[in-house]
Amino acid sequence: MRRVVLNEGADLEGFRTAARRLVAEGVPPEETVWSSDGALPLFGLAPAAEPVSPLRLPRAAAEHIETVVRHRDSERFALLYQFVWRVLHGERRLLEVPSDPLVHRLERMARSVRRDIHKMHAFLRFRRDEEATDERFVAWFEPEHFILEAAAPFFVERFRALRWAILTPLGSAHWDGVALTFGPAADRSQAPGKDAWEDSWRGYYESVFNPARINARAMRAEMPKKYWRNLPEATAIPHLVRTARSRVTEMLEQEATMPAKRKPEAALDAMRAPAITSLKQLNKLLMASDPLVPGATQAVPGEGPEDAEIVFVGEQPGDQEDRQGRPFVGPAGQLFDRALAEAGLNREEVYVTNAVKHFKFEMRGKRRIHQKPTAGEVKHYRWWLEKELELIKPKLVVALGGTAVLAMTGKSIPIIRARGFARFPDGYDGYITVHPSYLLRLPDEAAKAAAYRQFVSDLEAIRTIAADHPRGRVRAPAAAE
Amino acid sequence: MNHELMDERLARKLCILADAAKYDASCASSGAPKRAADAQGLGSTAHGICHAYTPDGRCVSLLKILLTNYCLYDCAYCVNRRSSNVRRARFSVEEVVELTIAFYKRNYIEGLFLSSGIIRSPDHTMEQLIQVARTLRRDRGFRGYIHLKTIPDASPWLIEQAGLWADRLSINIELSTEASLRKLAPDKNSAAIDAAMSQIRDRISEAKAERRSFSPAGQSTQVIIGADEATDEAVLRRTGRLYDEFGLKRVYYSAFSPIPAASAQLPLKAPPLTRENRLYQADWLLRFYGFSVDEIMAGGADGMLDLEVDPKLAWALKNRHRFPVDVNRADREMLLRVPGLGKRAVDKIIQARRHRTLSLDDLARLTTGLKRGRPFLVAAGHRPTRLLDRLDLRQSLVEPARQLRLL
Ligand code: SF4
């Protein structure tokens, strides 16, 4: 019979060393006795002549062992050695047989350990250490198993910016903002006895309880009584349970209440009134909104008279627009103004806006390089465009370039095919043409000039169509996009 | 406001506004992407931790409160309707932020579930809710869970903004038929509810495709059970559509429960908790077990589920010709239909039977529902043929009613 004595607690290292040597010497589980009272420094085997090689276990099995050693059951090491022995003697896939009695028992132990870790994450309560000069928190917790080391990293992830300590009868954990260290066992008196927020937390707990649904058994199944003494809210439980029935009876016996007061007609009318009745209001809301993709300096609203006959829709603000907060002021905007004038239109009389209201870019060195908006972004901003059109009720809506076409039709259509007069699905008539920035990008001067002439003639056509076109929607909006 | 000082006035408000929010059943904090605090930030998201349980057996995971319980609407089932005589209170944005942070630091909660009565206007109300979420996230570096109730009548733009800061958005449909909605919630509008839910669905799927974050834990809703005449079948058909058409993550069922200051329109009675429980079970069958609404309803009668046995057992009792099922051979789909075998048990059976031929003793180690399953399955050394023909089979499987009814 070989007697192995390991340290108290989750002595994984000790178990590993012992198991390696026992396996190497071919000692079967029936010939071993394990204990972990920690009386002897390591284990009662003669010192090894040379280091023994590690056990070759499947990963899942090794992980399982790491969990089960944390269990309080004093038989854990003997059971784990049986498991190791069988895995190494012809049953490599033993863990895959959950119906095997040993696997089943180990699995139940592992589940109990995992549950204890989970409950520690859930039921641990920090109290502020009023004696510390800076903000520091201390918790007292009594785990069932040896789980402190396994449970502590969760609190680091969550409370990295705070300083805290967790004290337990099986050891303590300390976080100073940089490193997690483990220390000796502690007792309750070392933790603060109260916290200024506990009364309101208990008040909250009492208020969310619905006496008509009382089911104390379900509560105890998930929050066993052994945890109650360290939960500040648990002192409320007996009273809540005792009074539940009478509270419900009282509610049921009460007469139905008469509708209180008069009807708040004025407030209701005010509520039902449309929230936004002018471009000014609309834009105020826009300016207060956050960009979908972070980075832009400010939102860039549309610009032009509220009774404009023609609305031009571009893509999204560029670098200049983002700085100035106005649409079409960069190089493409200047080209656009020139073309408008040549076509006999006045920038002051038309309304210009963008499908997307915030600049999106990528930094390249010191330069902010424009990035095309995605379809999702275009949809995200569509509501603004709809509102602008509703308030302005223009005769024509001009989509400049692919993104504007996407915003107006919900589809990506090549400009070459769609160029010209357009009936948009939401009921407006309009026109599709290129975006002025396209003209700037053409490499060849002759092509550039030709494209510019074509753009101007589009604008002339727009002016002519607009002359005797009715205002606003000319059809009911199509149902689907 | 003093950051670390909870004054009495605030504590009183907290009680009123928590009490006003407790009839909302959704409390889960799951489904958010994994997030850890950085050196300055606070909080992380884990898999739906319940930090406490109240004596009704329900989980406390989030600080679930209303921003205010003043409301201009008049929904008959709601304790906060404008004609109710409850005490009213109102938090400032700053107060909710401080409460959330102080509770979070003490490990009381996973985050915030914020809703509100409609004050001034739907847009105004929604803006306030967003303001809280934005302050927490942007100004205070809060990385815990945020669930915002969405006001369906608010401008679509505000819903878009809400999704930038919240982990989950939800709109409660509350009543499963339009007729009930007209009668009991006259200010609400089912077209607006549908429109808002499909907007959220679209934004969520676009954001996923474009790798942005928009309400990453999806959207959910709640249906009240027992306030109107709707049958279980009507509720489940509506639920089925919500999952299919709107891609909802969860539908919560909430048994209509006595409230203080009740309306004459809705006489109070004990909450139908068993019915609520059966609907949750049916909901699982719909989502994870491959059942259709028709199949589930075939287990009941007159459009209502069987209250005495769970819906899977009810279906099996009426389809005895499909049993017994051989656990050592049947495919996964059929194993999932055996009463008492849950998804996890089925997975384990499939894994274990590759190595062993399973007996009843083996099964007992793989599931806790063997008592219900036994008459319906074949295992090594076990054949239940005679059992299946017994007329009193159903009676022998009915669980004695447990402490579900108080009144
Ligand atoms: S809108 Fe209806 S359900 Fe919501 S708080 Fe007001 S009355 Fe209650």
Walk me through what this model shows.
The complex is a heterodimer of chains A (481) and B (407). Chain A has 481 residues and is α/β, with parallel strands linked by helices. Chain A is 41% helix and 13% strand. Chain A contains 17 helices and 14 strands. Chain B has a six-stranded parallel β-sheet with strand order 3-4-5-6-7-8. In chain B, β4 (111-115), α3 and β5 (145-149) form a beta-alpha-beta unit. Chain B is built from 16 helices and ten strands. Helix content of chain B is 39%, strand content 10%. The model of chain B is unreliable at 403-407 (pLDDT under 50). The chains are: A alpha/beta (481), B alpha/beta (407). At the A-B interface, α4, β3, α5, α6 and α7 of A face α1, β1, β2, α2 and α3 of B. The site of iron/sulfur cluster (SF4) has 8 residues of chain B, from loops.
Structure keywords:
heterodimer; A: 481 residues; alpha/beta; 4 domains; five-stranded mixed beta sheet; 14 strands; 13% strand; elongated; B: 407 residues; TIM Barrel; 2 domains; six-stranded parallel beta sheet; two-stranded antiparallel sheet; globular; disordered C terminus; binds iron/sulfur cluster
Number of beta strands of chain B: 10
Oligomerization category of the chains in this entry: heterodimer
Number of helices of chain A: 17
Give the percentage of residues in beta strands of chain A. Answer: 5-15%
Number of distinct helices of chain B: 16
CATH topology (level 3) name of the largest domain in chain B: TIM Barrel
Question: Any guess at the CATH architecture of the largest domain in chain A?
Answer: 3-Layer(aba) Sandwich
Mean pLDDT of chain B: 90
CATH class of the largest domain in chain A: Alpha Beta
Q: Which shape of chain B, going by the Cα principal axes?
A: globular
Largest interface: A-B, 91 and 100 residues
Largest sheet of chain A: 5 strands, mixed
- Helical content of chain A stands at 40-55%
Average pLDDT score of chain A: 91
Number of domains of chain A: 4
Reading side by side through the largest sheet of chain B, how are the strands ordered? 3-4-5-6-7-8
Q: What is the β-strand count of chain A?
A: 14
The helical percent of chain B reads 25-40%
Radius of gyration of chain B, Cα only, in angstroms?
Answer: 23 Å
Poorly predicted runs of chain B are 403-407
